[in-house]
Amino acid sequence: MFETTSLAGWGDMDFNSHMRNTAYLDKSGDARMQFFAAHDFPVPEFARLRIGPVVMKDEVEYFREIHLLEQIKVTLALVAMAEDGSRFQLRNEFFRADGQLAARVTSTGGWLDLGRRKLIAPPEGLLAAMRIMGQGSEVKILPSSLSAKAP
């Protein structure tokens, strides 16, 4: 399982003095891009190929508060994926410094061709990274995002 550390910064806080809900989504995206960069698919490669991840649904569950300047561990796991990689479900978990689970973000998405504005199957290098993300865990199979008529 991939993990990274982050800090709950000033801009991550809400009026109640704990990490705001959209900060969890932002840090989830950061962890995902760090994973791809660490597995031979850096951000410039997404730009070069004119593709990007698109999230269709996020579910956030909260368990414990995270406060300003707390160090947090963010994990990333592949939960489900279509065989062609065109659709996926990723899970990020957020742990406080004391090891307690603070939140879980489960995101369902796919890969977008930025020129055609259509969902696509990822190129082989990106699909390989996704498969690495799923190693060591049971990954459910999702239906493809691509229609049977698509080239």
TrEMBL record:
SUPFAM superfamilies: Thioesterase/thiol ester dehydrase-isomerase. One of its GO terms (molecular function) is hydrolase activity. Keywords: Hydrolase. The keyword Hydrolase applies. It comes from the Bacteria. Pfam families: 4HBT_2 (PF13279). This is Acyl-CoA thioester hydrolase. It comes from Permianibacter aggregans.
